[in-house]
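It is worth pausing here to work through a concrete case rather than discussing structure prediction in the abstract. The textbook approach is simple: state the sequence, then state the predicted structure, then interpret. We follow exactly that order.
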Amino acid sequence: MSVSKRPISSFQELETAADDSDEIHFKLNGQQWLLVDDGNPLTPASKTLINCDLPEEQQFFANTEEFLTCQIGGQSLADCWPQMSEVAVWSVQFDSLEEFVQAIKDGCDIKFSLAGRQYSLVQSSERKVYRQLTWRLEKSGQMKVEKFADLKQILAFEIAGQSLGKQWSAMKNVDYG
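Step two, the predicted structure:
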């Protein structure tokens, strides 16, 4: 796994980054803050804002719009922007296809973004199913589940016209465990 950091220099960049990033770090009034996206389309509050200096101080958001309109210390996020420093996107990605395959073989649940959509690859409780991939359909909002009998089927499954086995390097917001 590798972590890359990209600075954010405007509130407009923050708006865009909050939509497609797994972590955004910033300092505000001397305190370190972290916005985490769990990458799981099944959870109702997919984004969490944490004051790292006071971890009990957290806010939960169903989507980016809720985050962008939140209040910190009685001020809107937009009003806080001039006082924010060290604002950066942290992205986690697989370093190789072998690392992706090993995470699957190790039985890890893997969450990632690909082609503008969040996916969750998890073990299945069904005996004949090795793994299942879950994501939310944009137009209907319904959950889509694809089931796989083996690793070969997972790697051959196509998203946006290419197999997962060829897109491991394009996966963003990777989280597994």
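Step three, interpretation. The CA atoms of residues 62 and 164 lie 27 Å apart. The mean pLDDT is 87.
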